[in-house]
Amino acid sequence: MSRILAVDDEPSIVRLIQVSLTREGHDVITASDGREALAKAEAERPDLILMDVMMPYVDGFEAIRLLKEKAETRDIPVILLTAKRHDADMIRGIESGAASYLTKPFSPNALVALVSEILGNGDNQDGGARQ
């Protein structure tokens, strides 16, 4: 069982992630903004982070940058979840250190498959994007 941190300022998205991944046997912890995500990532040391890009206080791009600066959190893979569908946004996400990029709306099956792919191969840093 993996510990996954789900970060989104929309409670319905967080709930969808929780339900989908808990059914697969994962332990899901949550945060509602980038600041809370940074604190929980350091305290909880999750195996994976699912993070929205557009959030209050600290956006997903900045949160990844800050996570990658710390030795304790730099190796945690991050999947960005966002409604931003432009190639430039996807490239920015991957260049910021995201392991992958999943655009909203997403199906729970696509989410579960991507999480399994990333966790099943911890060195998978190819930056694959999913829509």
How big a fraction of the residues is strand? 15-25%
Q: CATH superfamily membership, which one?
A: Response regulator
Strand order of the largest sheet: 2-1-3-4-5-6
Low-confidence stretches: 121-131
Helix content: 40-55%
Question: Can you walk through the features of this model?
Answer:
- It is a single chain.
- This protein has 131 residues and is of the alpha/beta class.
- It has a single domain (3-122), classed as Rossmann fold.
- The protein has five helices and six strands.
- It has helices at 11-22, 34-44, 60-69, 87-95, 108-120, and strands spanning 3-7, 27-31, 48-52, 78-82, 100-103, 128-130.
- A six-stranded parallel β-sheet has the order 2-1-3-4-5-6, with helices on both faces.
- Helix 5 (108-120) links the parallel strand 5 (100-103) and strand 6.
- Helix 1 packs across helix 5.
- It is globular.
